[in-house]
Here is the input.
Amino acid sequence: MVLSEQLATTGQRQAARKHSQSGLSSRAWIYMVLLSFQYGAQPLLSKRFSGNSVIVSSAVITCEWAKVGFALIFMAWDGTLWSLGKEWTLSGALIASGLPAAMYALQNSLLQLGYRHLDSLTFSMLNQSKLLFTALFMFLILRIKQSSHQVGALAILLGASLLLCIGESSSSSKSNNAHREAILSGVLPTLIASILSGLASTLCQWAAQVKRRSSYLMTIEMSAIGTLCLFVSMLWSPDGQTIRRHGFFYGWTLYTFIPIFTNAIGGILVGLVTTAAGGVRKGFVIVMALLVTALLQLIFEGKSPSTYTWSAMPLVVSSVILYQRYPYREKSKTQ
Here is the structure.
């Protein structure tokens, strides 16, 4: 989730240390359960209610507006909204949020394609490859090291991603054209989105730690800048031509707003889970979400996971648990 990654950056390490040895409150459990259902249901909701007739750019822009609305509500709730005018500057916003915002705008559009051309469970597991790219960019840019267990977990996750790609390219139930469409319009956009997610998330963490930017404020800045980038791109893009011909909400129904708002609410929940339960336990939410996706896909689509998906699931689950359970620790120096 785009907003999820933005809200999870500030204080994640501190929250993880704070909660690593303490029990969870009932409120934390509620947040975790709600986030698991949101993560698990999001691919299904987007695929069902954002049909192929809905213009990708209009869905992304509306989602960005929803994020701004929720961020403003929560800033008013915690009292930080009223001091915004004294602290905010345009130059600071461009330095901290400009480049990540452009990346997130493109990533959001690519994820919409992935939602539409992959089954929900395959998309959810393939989307976890962002963990691999985040770790890579964290090391290259912020020099954040990984433990040997985490390196092994990332290798397992890479193997699971490759297995899912092979499954999409060799499914016997698809024609050659369907194979090509699944790879080019489903797998490839999702993997590129994961790369962008890793890089943008790293830049967000840099802004949060070095520039001390509020996660809610960064959400508003990146949504505003990302929306501006999309509007500029629509001057020549096919989406822009379609909007000028048929209108911004072409192909929309009232149900289309459901995945838009659940995506935005999910971002708020990530921030709450990180604060209430810590970053380590947030990894288990991802695992629970994969099971939710599999169950919902079976109930509402009558589609059981493929052999490749069943094979990849334990790899994804074990890699996430392993990565979150064994973080890198500096070796104590002996005198």
The chain has 15 helices and no strands. The CA atoms of residues 18 and 228 lie 38 Å apart. The radius of gyration is 20 Å.
